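queue> holo job accepted (adenosine-5'-diphosphate)
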Amino acid sequence: MAVDATAAPGGAPNVPGRAPLLEVDGLTVEFRSGAGRVRVVDDVRFTLDRGRTLGLVGESGSGKTVTSLAVMGLLPPRSSWVEGSVRLDGQELVDAAGAELTDLRGRDIGMIFQEPRRSLNPAFTVGEQIAEIARRHLGLSRKDAWDRAVEMLDTVNIADAARRARHYPHEFSGGMCQRVMLAGALVCRPKLLIADEPTTALDVTVQARMLRLMNELQAEFDLGILFITHDLGVVAEMADDVAVMYAGELVEQAPVDDLLSRPEHPYTAGLLGSSPDVQGHVERLRSIPGSVPAVGAWPAGCRFHTRCEHARPGTCDTDPVALADGGPGRRARCVRSGELHLEGVGVDA
Amino acid sequence: MPETTDTGPAEPLLEVTDLRKSFVTKRDVFGRAVAREDAVRGVSFTLPHGRTLGIVGETGAGKSTVGRLVLRLAEPDAGSVRLLGADVLSLSRRDLRRLRRRAQMIFQDPFASLDPRMLVGQTIGEPLLLHAGLKGAARTARVVELLGRVGLPAGTADRYPHEFSGGQLQRVAIARALASEPDLIVCDEPVAALDVSVQAQVLNLLLDLQAERGLSYLFISHDLSLVRSFAHEVAVMNHGEIVESGPGSELFGHPQHPYTKELVSAIPVTRPGRRRSAAVRRAAASIPAAPEPPVVRPVLSHVLEGDPS
Amino acid sequence: MLRFMAQRVLMAVPVIVLVSLFVFLLLDLLPGDAAVAIAGENATPEQIADTRERLGLDLPLLERFWDWFTAALHGDLGTSLYTGQSVGGAVAERLPVTASLAVVALLMAVAVGVPLGALAATRPGSRVDRVVGVAGSLAMALPPFVIALVLVVVFAIRLAVLPATGYESIADGGVGVWLSHLLLPAVAVAALLGAELARQTRGALLDALSQSYVRTARARGLKPLSVVGKHALKNAAAPVVTVLALQAGHVLGAAVTVEFVFAMPGFGSLAVDAVNQRDVPMIQGVVFTSALVVLVANLLADLAYGYLNPKLRAG
Ligand SMILES: Nc1ncnc2c1ncn2[C@@H]1O[C@H](COP(=O)(O)OP(=O)(O)OP(=O)(O)O)[C@@H](O)[C@H]1O
Ligand SMILES: Nc1ncnc2c1ncn2[C@@H]1O[C@H](COP(=O)(O)OP(=O)(O)O)[C@@H](O)[C@H]1O
Ligand code: SF4
Ligand SMILES: [Mg+2]
Ligand SMILES: [Mg+2]
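queue> job finished
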């Protein structure tokens, strides 16, 4: 398998001779469905470097979470099939042995999830839940691991960390639970953080604080972050590069400002247009007609053609569309992306 | 309903004065209240005919409670609610029922708010029978008409809620609300559970209906951007109080209250140039740069300086 | 946690009073005139009157209850109408037999039921899961005394590796002999409880394993044993403990019938004799003690709850 480092989106400079932090290629995931299989992630490909953030955007059911779980090797082994390649610092993970993957999770890759409170175990103190990870991966003693946990809680701005470490998750607010999750994800100083909609369930002011914290820690730990969200506003604030998913596949990839100001895929443009924050007060909002097709019922040809205002019958609804290289660090999955001049958002309102 | 007919043209559709409500949060062994929490602490506002008042605020601010109090789905501790010229809080049970058909509510989760064992047609037809006495073919025709109005095919009537997507179900919920020809709809997070690309469709439907029928909306949401583009007036709630209100553009453009300012500055902005380069972030975090300098993308300088985050 | 414990213990007090009242009323619930029933069909009116006075049946109900209750709290449960032995003494003599049986059965049921349930939960639909399920249904369908009879026939009579009847205390015969007498009856008692525990453990663990915090534990690279045995099991334990407490009464009941099959001088024969002889104070003593045992089991379960679910402690 050749290392396709030059194709890194976002023009992220790959230092010659050094593999990108995370390299995903041809990632395909299928689940058992009745007697057969149903594909939910199709041929996903992206790279991510240290110290950078890749925003993975898409509506619910587009396959974002499944993609991230496949990267972590966390999909149920008996009812799912993963193909393609996931390399962390050049090491292949897709066919790695189970024990090897287990060692790597939590140590080299940290992950946080959408529902912070439910992601913490209600039956243990938050300190114990972090210390346990340090004992497992760093071989620390109980005492040292506990001290490390308190230190991490302090790092994620939990006031009075030494006392709070002895508290249980139900004694924390949602935003604090997410910081506790972040402390657990970073306690072993991983290179990669996967954040699956980490602020979707949080209030906007709490979200703002969380995002700021993530940015600070990214700088401090030189973290690569795979940031999953459906909120283009959050993407604009957090991501260096963006990959947009629709119906299980990537439809566009670009550096964040390019994507926002000059989208090349009609779906991206539609999402940008229907984003209320972009519109100000209006009599009618712009919207994408129709609804997201269900898994297993993806249309033939371009999967977006049933909702696309630029669709060209005879072309768009026949053959699958390939993800084609566009400008520097850009790719789009649209036969007409070269000829369409899609509207993005400007710097000013 | 004599009280509702003397609505003078000058009188607003809805007038809420000093509304208060607290909930018991802790009881002792004998069921006596030992702790209470003030969910709504003196809220006042008016909503003119054909307009939208947005109520924004964070979780637990008391938004939904206000919505429920206005329709008397919960009993206020104090305050007054005048709806269509009637004093809602002193109405008899019967008059309240009659008033309620002119004030409907739609909720965040359409799956939870529709009876899963009832056909969509029955769900929409129920208020038609109760309020307008429509039966048989006339009722069926009206159901189909309502479905058509919210953009659903006539066949929808013979299907069950689980056969629909969230966006379609929210349309069904809107059709049911429309069936009793309301003047006011209280919308509690009506699109929060929907896909981004579908949200705008549902909101557009609400906007169209407003233009057509002069409907008024009390629009409850935690999404400030959404409220700004949808509502004429916006009230910001915090800890059970309205801390600031005014026209959306005014409120978001020049927030006065510190809480509103914090809220507004926290909204993620979907514009290019918001992302600060790694070097700048590192400097902000006062961490020495890593040995390999990352490439700095061109970033707009005024955004850099004015960046509130 | 201390406050939580105190609260639970306090809440047990009214239950004890109610149970006592019920036990006490048993006397009045006997069909017909209790004095007649106790004195016998052929007793003379004087004998009946005498019995009535001796039992204090001529006093107001509440007064009688209060006397009995305060005495019972001091461990004085009265005297047997037939043997003249103190009821407390008889209970103290027989209880260790039944308690040994119940505790050994309990340990067996937990040691076998919980791991099997856990094994089934980690492999739902697998062969292991199905075998555990079928074995559990079988154990639940067979009454304990039938299992006991089968065990006696196979192990005591055919193979003759374990004694068929009797009981030896540790003091008399040592741990080995004590256990050899308990093994077969304990299996008979444990079968039902073990099956129920396996079923509950499987269900509760399956539920816990589908929770987000289990995904977190996996995402942190924790070893599978720690994910299941620590993170999921502590959360799954609450319903399992409930079952354990709820089954305390059943275990006692099963122990009583199984004791018969193995001719063990336990609580069971004491109870049956007392009923046959209409030995009212003895019946009261036996029921009161059993009720206390079940109550204590429930109290322990409540306290275990507090440990397992930190949220409860706060409330
Ligand atoms: N039935 C109830 N019993 C007790 N407390 C309640 C009840 N309903 C609401 N509350 C409390 O009142 C406060 C306001 O609740 P409300 O549901 O109005 O908030 P909200 O602004 O709608 O929040 P969200 O954005 O989460 O929907 C909260 O602290 C809530 O816990
Ligand atoms: N364990 C699973 N078994 C079967 N289907 C699944 C499983 N997990 C996710 N899916 C399906 O895969 C699709 C993509 O889901 P997901 O990645 O969670 O979407 P999102 O982009 O919202 O994160 C959905 O249709 C979902 O129902
Ligand atoms: S390929 Fe055709 S249908 Fe698909 S996005 Fe492009 S123009 Fe639209
Ligand atoms: Mg997801
Ligand atoms: Mg609410």
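queue> Chain A is about 30% helix and 20% strand.
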